[in-house]
């Protein structure tokens, strides 16, 4: 027989076996076919796990379960996350405040002059408005008010200097007599102080002054520099006051353009209220300081203490520094009375000062300032301390009105934002409307400073 039929028989047997294998795979569809399995190199990304991962056997039933690792954010406690979020925001605010304070300290003279101009404008602006209502043009009303105000301030300063120079000789004689009386009292006192010890103290004071001549001279030169800066600040304050009195509304409207549009309405409403608070504070403080100066000055004059009028003027000026100014001016009056008139007169001056200050704190300030300026005493003390440490006497003077204005602005903006939220909330219906509280009354904002 030929070999061809044997070859055909082998080929037929191979086809038969292949057909049997295909039938077996069709009966088991869950088992992957090696022929149909795609190549791992050509498998598209994300199309299921690779073949090696699919062939990994499942862990036995007795193996412990391994929990997945949590998200790091979810692993941090809620309180710590809140503290971290608040912390970095506070750091940003502190850095911004520090930079702002550095800028203000670099231009401290300009800032204090402008703030002084604001205070003077708050005092004089009602007079300008009254003259305009009488029919005077804006320029003439501004000129008359500014000239009258500056002339009165200049006369007060000249009067104080004149009175001090006029009574300086008498005061030096009184001081010398007081030192002699103190020396006699020390010699006769039970402290057993000898005259040689008193002379040694006087000699030490003289030597100290002689050895510190250079420091005293440099202090005098610094005093000249300070006087030049004061004169510069006064001129800058005068020019700023003129422009604020004449063109204050236009300056305010221009300033509103620098505010973002979303917050412009709220700022436009807070500005006039802040200005009214500042005006009420300045006018009330001037009236209270004038009453203190008159009554304490009369008490000093009746007790025959020298320089009663200059001391009254000092009391008036120091009254613009809350708490601290009253203590300093009262202590100055008591020291002058002690040196010139003795212990009894000093004690009587102290009683007069304390009585007038108690009446001021409990009667005058609540009655005159009222609800327009309401600042907690602790806030006053802290504001004066921070202002004095930051910018000296000028900072102590402007600290309290700044806190009062800030309090007014923050209160208005809080009420305004609440009103906006209530306006965006749908109105209640049915029984819900009966228990709903009315919206916070907020006056419509205005863009002009009164």
From TrEMBL:
It is found in: Cell membrane. It is a multi-pass membrane protein. The chain crosses the membrane at residues 140-165, 224-246, 280-302, 308-328, 335-359, 379-405. Residues 18-59, 427-450 are annotated as: Disordered. Pfam families: AI-2E_transport (PF01594). Keywords: Cell membrane, Membrane, Transmembrane, Transmembrane helix, Transport. Residues 30-39 have a biased composition (Acidic residues). Belongs to the autoinducer-2 exporter (AI-2E) (TC 2.A.86) family. PANTHER family: PERMEASE PERM-RELATED (PTHR21716:SF53), TRANSMEMBRANE PROTEIN (PTHR21716). This is AI-2E family transporter. It comes from Streptomyces albipurpureus.
């Amino acid at each position: 027989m030929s070999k061809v039929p044997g070859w055909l028989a082998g080929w037929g047997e191979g086809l038969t076996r292949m057909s049997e294998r295909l039938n077996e795979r069709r009966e088991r569809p869950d088992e992957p076919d090696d022929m149909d399995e795609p190549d791992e190199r050509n498998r598209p990304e994300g199309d299921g796990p690779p073949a090696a991962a699919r062939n990994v056997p499942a862990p036995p039933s007795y193996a412990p379960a391994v929990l997945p690792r949590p998200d790091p954010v979810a692993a941090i406690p809620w309180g710590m996350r809140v503290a971290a979020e608040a912390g970095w925001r506070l750091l940003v605010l502190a850095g911004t405040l520090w930079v702002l304070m550095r800028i203000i300290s670099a231009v401290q003279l300009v800032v204090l002059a402008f703030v002084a101009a604001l205070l003077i404008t708050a005092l004089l602006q009602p007079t300008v408005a009254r003259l305009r209502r009488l029919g005077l043009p804006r320029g003439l009303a501004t000129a008359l008010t500014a000239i009258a105000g500056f002339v009165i301030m200049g006369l007060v300063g000249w009067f104080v200097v004149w009175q001090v120079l006029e009574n300086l000789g008498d005061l030096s004689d009184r001081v010398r007599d007081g030192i002699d009386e103190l020396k006699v009292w020390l010699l006769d006192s039970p402290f057993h102080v000898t005259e040689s010890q008193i002379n040694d103290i006087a000699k030490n004071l003289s030597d100290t002054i002689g050895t510190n001549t250079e420091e005293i001279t440099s202090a005098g030169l610094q005093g000249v520099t300070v006087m030049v800066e004061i004169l510069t600040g006064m001129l800058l304050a005068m020019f700023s006051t003129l422009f604020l009195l004449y063109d204050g509304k236009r300056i305010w409207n221009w300033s509103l353009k620098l505010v973002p549009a979303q917050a412009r309405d709220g700022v436009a409403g807070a500005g006039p209220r802040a200005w009214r608070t500042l005006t009420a504070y300045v006018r009330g403080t001037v009236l209270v300081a004038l009453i203190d100066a008159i009554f304490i000055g009369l008490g000093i004059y009746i007790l025959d203490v020298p320089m009663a009028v200059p001391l009254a003027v000092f009391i008036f000026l120091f009254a613009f520094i809350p708490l601290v100014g009253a203590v300093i001016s009262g202590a100055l009056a008591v020291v002058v009375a002690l040196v010139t008139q003795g212990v009894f007169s000093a004690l009587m001056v102290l009683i007069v000062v304390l009585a007038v200050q108690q009446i001021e704190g409990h009667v005058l300030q609540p009655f005159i300032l009222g609800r327009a300026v309401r600042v907690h005493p602790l806030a006053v003390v802290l504001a004066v301390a921070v202002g004095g440490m930051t910018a000296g006497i000028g900072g102590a003077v402007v600290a309290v009105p700044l806190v009062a204005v800030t309090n007014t602005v923050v209160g208005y903006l809080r009420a305004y934002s609440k009103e906006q939220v209530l306006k965006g909330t749908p109105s209640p219906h049915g029984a819900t409307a009966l228990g709903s509280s009315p919206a916070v009354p907020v006056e419509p904002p205005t863009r002009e400073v009164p």
